[in-house]
């Protein structure tokens, strides 16, 4: 059991440092006032409450909600859910008397010129948590805002104390938890079934809808190959969802570099870091980021992708990339398969967005499973006690899979992501998840799909259903008659003229509520009886094969290319060096395929009767090349 909310913070406009309507944010109150032992409070949180800077406004804006992500020194992510609204303030700018007027008539006192005006200052209600329950944070902050705006008579101290002190979340695999923060609300939290699986809701579907298949695949390749990726949008919600989607499409890998879905404008110098990153910025900074020469910029609002000329993004080669794009087109456009039919059947019903999201994730998971097929056969355990230490034979894996000439595979195996995968999934005795089952069953699925191509979509949908059940492990509980009740302000409540400012909360009263709730709350026997996932032996699955697709024939080069290769070798040993050099470019292109290299070895073995052979200087040079 862990807390749903670590800290509740009220951040306001710092009027003491105001210069020309611009200033900084200042933490007005935070609860609890002392740090938790397991989770210290993060300084500088006010930077992320207003990503575009703290500024006064002449117009009142509607409340906004967005989520920033902070990463501590242990690479743990802390989610900062912010509900921002405006408060009316009276500004009294003072202009000193003109020195020229004083010099003309020093005997006459000139009063300072004073002008009164009404401005609107931003204020934020912030929840800091290690849990990833964004919708619940939105609901809780909305309830507190509604109780204040509508003056419902419920003390705000009671709501904040209950939110910080009484809501506990079970670990992954736990049951649904229902709670209320004391405003007549009814809320529920459902933990996912497996801890390592990401939760995306509809974020991945949104990414593909905004950027399209080609740009999304290119962006995924850039993230997987450790490039600098920058997302740009007018909406903070799109930036957070797109970063979440890209990180989820990497599964079973974990993004290990700089991850800032919403970068404040005052910290734009972070974009000059030499390390890879995945960052989102507001569109107001788009002109500044275009000057970066090694950053890939994706505009989510326009759907464009800018790749600098100096950046080379490796892509999966051969059938792997083609199958990825075809599967995505099949999922997003199910009518494509029967579009040219003379007697086309009725178009199939489109999947809902939350299932399309899981089907897209299933396509990318299958692609990574194809690429990593047989990786467990190249793992070597060099130490067992006190903790397992494993090494991965990269050269052996690339050679056995025929991927030595694939820049995407080479770059992926050299990345920090893959080292983390080996450390996390390398031990043969551990809890397994959906990806381990996929790697085990994928060769048989591909064999059946080669006999019946219609099974590919069925296999994708089956995997998507497993991902859906991971996010919603108890659909029968959700379908029951429990309805959540969340308070919302009426339409136009933010435009009220005589809305009083948010009063400061009584810190002593909040502490009393937190203490009373902690004393009354007894540990739930059902939750304390939860057992972690049981470890078992991880099967090694099928061994690595010589192609991207299991069962693919080794010799796939055309007869013409093999004929050119044999003619070049014959000219080399017969002393016709000019003919050998003429066909050398074609031979080098042919040798990119494993089948051609195997043919070269067999031809050389047939021409050399013994292990030793005396070669001329030109023969040796061309043969080594």
Automatic annotation (TrEMBL):
It comes from the Eukaryota. SMART domains: dDENN, DENN, uDENN. Pfam families: DENN, SBF2, uDENN. InterPro entries: cDENN_dom (IPR001194), dDENN_dom (IPR005112), DENN_C (IPR043153), DENN_Domain_GEFs (IPR051696), SBF1/SBF2 (IPR022096), Tripartite_DENN (IPR037516), uDENN_dom (IPR005113). Transmembrane segments: none annotated. Residues 6-432 form the UDENN domain. This is UDENN domain-containing protein. The lineage of its organism: Eukaryota, Metazoa, Ecdysozoa, Arthropoda, Hexapoda.
């Amino acid at each position: 059991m862990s807390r749903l909310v670590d800290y509740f913070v009220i951040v306001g406009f710092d009027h003491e440092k105001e210069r020309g309507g611009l200033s900084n944010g200042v933490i007005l109150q935070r609860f609890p006032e002392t740090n938790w032992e397991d989770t210290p409070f993060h300084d500088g949180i006010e930077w992320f409450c207003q990503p575009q800077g703290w500024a006064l406004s002449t117009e009142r804006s509607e409340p906004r909600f967005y989520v920033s992500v902070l990463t501590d020194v242990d690479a743990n992510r802390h989610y900062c859910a912010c509900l921002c609204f405006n408060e009316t303030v009276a500004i009294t700018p003072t202009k000193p008397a003109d020195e020229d007027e004083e010099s003309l008539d020093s005997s006459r006192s000139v009063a300072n010129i004073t002008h009164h005006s009404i401005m609107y200052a931003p204020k934020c209600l912030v929840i800091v948590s290690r849990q990833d329950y964004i919708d619940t944070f939105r609901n809780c902050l909305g309830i507190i805002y509604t109780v204040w705006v509508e003056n419902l008579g419920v003390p705000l101290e009671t709501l904040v104390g209950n939110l910080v002190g009484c809501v506990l979340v079970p670990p992954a695999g736990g049951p649904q938890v229902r709670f209320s923060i004391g405003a007549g609300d009814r809320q529920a939290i459902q933990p996912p079934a497996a801890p390592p699986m990401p939760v995306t809701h509809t974020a991945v579907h949104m990414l593909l809808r905004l950027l399209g298949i080609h740009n999304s695949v290119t962006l995924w390749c850039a993230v997987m190959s450790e490039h600098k990726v920058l997302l740009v949008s007018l909406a903070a919600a799109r930036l957070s969802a797109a970063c979440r989607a890209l990180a989820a499409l990497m599964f079973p890998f974990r993004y290990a570099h700089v991850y800032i879905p919403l970068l404040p404008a005052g910290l734009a110098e972070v974009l000059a870091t030499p390390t890879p990153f995945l960052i989102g910025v507001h569109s107001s900074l788009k002109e500044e980021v275009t000057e970066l020469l090694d950053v890939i910029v994706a505009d989510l609002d326009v759907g464009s992708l800018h790749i600098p000329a100096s950046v080379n993004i490796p892509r999966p080669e051969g059938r792997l990339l083609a199958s990825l794009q075809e599967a995505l087109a099949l999922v997003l456009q199910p009518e494509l398969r029967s579009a040219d039919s003379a007697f086309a059947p009725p178009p199939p019903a489109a999947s809902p967005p939350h299932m399309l999201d899981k089907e897209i994730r299933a396509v990318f998971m299958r692609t990574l499973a194809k690429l990593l097929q047989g990786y467990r056969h190249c793992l070597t355990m060099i130490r067992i006690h006190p903790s397992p230490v494993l090494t991965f034979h990269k050269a052996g894996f690339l050679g056995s899979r025929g991927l030595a000439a694939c820049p995407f595979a080479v770059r992926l195996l050299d990345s920090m992501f893959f080292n983390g995968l080996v450390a996390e999934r390398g031990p043969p005795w551990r809890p397994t998840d959906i990806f381990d089952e996929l790697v085990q069953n994928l060769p048989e699925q591909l064999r059946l799909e080669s006999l019946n191509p219609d099974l590919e979509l069925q296999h994708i949908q089956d995997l998507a259903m497993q991902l859906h059940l991971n996010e919603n492990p108890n659909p029968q509980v959700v379908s029951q008659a429990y309805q959540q009740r969340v308070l919302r302000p009426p339409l136009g409540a933010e435009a009220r003229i005589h809305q009083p400012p948010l009063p400061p909360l009584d810190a002593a009263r909040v502490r009393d509520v937190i203490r009373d709730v902690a004393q009354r709350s007894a540990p739930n026997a059902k939750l304390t009886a939860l057992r972690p996932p049981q470890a078992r032996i991880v099967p090694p699955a099928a061994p690595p094969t010589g192609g991207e697709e299991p069962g693919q024939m080794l010799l796939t080069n055309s007869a013409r290319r093999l004929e050119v290769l044999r003619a070049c070798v014959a000219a080399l040993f017969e002393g016709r060096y000019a003919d050998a050099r003429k066909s050398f470019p074609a031979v080098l292109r042919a040798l990119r395929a494993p089948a051609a290299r195997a043919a070269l070895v067999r031809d050389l073995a047939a021409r050399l009767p013994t292990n030793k052979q005396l070669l001329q200087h030109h023969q040796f040079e061309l043969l080594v090349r």
